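Homework-ish question, so no full write-ups if that breaks the rules, but can someone show me the predicted structure for this set?
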Amino acid sequence: MLALRGVSLDIRAGEVLALIGENGAGKSTLMKVLSGAHQPDSGSVEMEGRPLALTSPSVARRAGIAMIYQELTLAPHLSVEENMTLGMERTKFGFLRSQTQKVEAALQLLEAEDILSSRKVRSLTIARQQIVEIARAIVSEARVVIMDEPTSSLSGDDKQALFRVIRKLREEGLAIVYISHFLDEIDEIADRYTVLRDGESVGQGLVAESTPESLVEQMIGRTIDEMYPRPNHDTGEVVLAVKTVHGTALPRGVSFDLQGREILGIFGLVGAGRTELARCLFGLDPVVSGGIELNGGAEMNLSGFQPIKALTGGLDYLSENRKDEGLAQNLSIAANTTLSAIRKTSRLGFLQLEEEKATADRLAKKLDIRCANTSQPVSALSGGNQQKVALARMIHHDSDIFFMDEPTRGIDVGSKHEIYELIHSMAAGGKSIIVVSSYLPELLGICHNIAVMHRGSLSKKRPAEEWSEQEILLFATTGKHQPSFVAQ
Amino acid sequence: MPTLPALSSNWKSLLLPFIGLLFVFGLFTALIYAFEPDNLSAFLSSRNAKTVITQTVIVGIGALGMTMVITSGGIDLSAGSTIALSSVACALTINAFASGEDPATIGALGMTAAALVAMATGAATGAFNGSVSCLLKIPPFIVTLGTMLIARGAAEGIAKQSQVRTPENALQNFMQRKPDPEWLFLAPGVWITLALLIGVGITMRYTVFGRYIYALGSNESTARLCGIPIARTRILIYTLCGTLMGISGVMSYAFLGSGDPTTAVAKELDIIAAVVIGGGSLSGGQGSPIGSIAGALIMTLLVSGCSMLNVPDYSQKIIIGFIIIGAVAVDTWKTRRQAAS
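A: Not a homework solution, just the prediction itself:
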């Protein structure tokens, strides 16, 4: 396997270096080399002028290189302190010695004094857990902190809080490598950038002197006229009417209409209940009260609703979590593609494996899923291609209404664009799609209409053109519309 | 009509599990040749081959059921107790049909009824495991641990804490190395195991239910998302597993010639080991019926080979223990290498 060929990177103290590139460009392999998990065939790493042999993760860690992975690596059942000192425990006569002071100092540095060192990590939000993970890097006296897609599960305020933390680290003289697909984030936080493509470093420079367009072009090696295509088709009659749906905690009395061929964006901060809303409507989370009307039919009470009923009713759901929920990772692409509509490729309870393969091959070709063949396990694919398998399953099941929860989370620019195009062609072909996202530019770009969630309640839906970014954030944070809008 | 794709393209994958078996066989041949050359001809005899194959039947049939459960991400610790309970149920049914010591009174009807009662007993135990685990949301490890004691106690209770002896009958010939009639060549129990292997193999590979087994084991959340009836599928898996333990119980009765409530103690561990040696993963999503049978054969061959080498019983246990760990280590290593390439 040749994932990297000729990458040069220099990381400077007191600076944030953005590492950008498509999935498969070699970012994660480079990370593995820097964290000591993989050994390069050639090349060298020098730290402060001295050569450094990164032969194992513990060597890298001792040398002061800390990794913050996309998926957090904390032990949920241990306390904040135990997590932050894991592997760095200090003992006296074999007994653990408290390092509370050190831990609290690190949290204080990150302006997160409110995180008690004795709290169990699982009781913290994802955003707070991430802070703990960064604080762990400080406790371990890291000099270089490498962050892989750190904002992929954060929104608004949490993201800003993270950026403040990153700036703190920079002030403290640490070197930060920031890996992200979000170019606006890079614009906001990074000083310099290096672009990887096909395992090579193809460009670098100062962020201040770059434009998003020039970065995208360098990443994918071609120009993209429009990152976010606008829908250019009209919507039809109401196909789904949601009537005051209450979940166990969230959502709280949400009502809205969805029209045929409509792409409706639902924006919300983490904890606003946007994912819970989609899950309730698909029967994954329990609904306390409320119902839906499908295609103008009678109202259907949602208590006791199950995914199996939702699928029969013509709904489908794309999970925000491909690894733990969306896909059966060690099953083949073909098996995953046909899983929700297995009756279509079986007769009398027997699988028609050739038909199944033909179906999967056809969809893999249509969605440009890059794989050796469709009997490969899904786990062998990159994030973008995995997401396409999940979408292929939805297309194969052929429901009329789709809930897509963070459809482009953690996938590369090229795949994102393909997925936007796919959403458009599905909608133009008669499907109605609800896109749940914490990424505003995406929603403002690709949706007909947008509604915003705040603490379990949903704003009125308005055409995307009528929302401004400020208005959306105002509602997301306060639950209030701008006075000018209310007056209308 | 359902069509089955040609099996021929899969010959390689079907034979793969037997490479380990061949390896163990070759290893013991070499060891016996080196250390106990007098026993070599006995070890290589067709008689010994038949013995090994016949002795694999009880664990083998159990392993077929366990393969489904383990592949679906579950576990059945009550297997050994279920086998004992079924064997007692089988013997008691025989006695219910027999009047006096005259075997003729049992007849084909009595023997069929005995086998069916044993299977129903196993199925009921399995259905209990599946239902309690699914409906009360208790991990199958705990439920089947409880059932292990419940079924064992029930077996001892209905057998009045002793062996249940029966008049001689043809069912007892099912595990004879020399079958009657002789043209069968192998014991009827072996042929039944083969038939069950084909049945379970086809079920797991070529049916929707089989796909659900893999999907549940690979990722239950995905299965739910895709509208798979999780509770119903799981209960069915445990019920089928229990039924196979029931058949294994009939074989146990045939082997011992009586219903023994104390038989098959800790047999579930042999059965689980056979599945794991055969490529099953205790975290679910992976398992192969033919692999499990190969695993069961490896375990019997080990016992046979060790006794030919005059290795004492305790060393056999140590060796088998290492083989289990080794088999899984090799498998993990292979998976990792595949993932890396």
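Now go work out the reasoning yourself. Hint: The interface with chain A takes residues 1-5, 206-211, 214-215, 218-219, 221-229, 285-286, 339-341 of chain B (CB under 8 Å).
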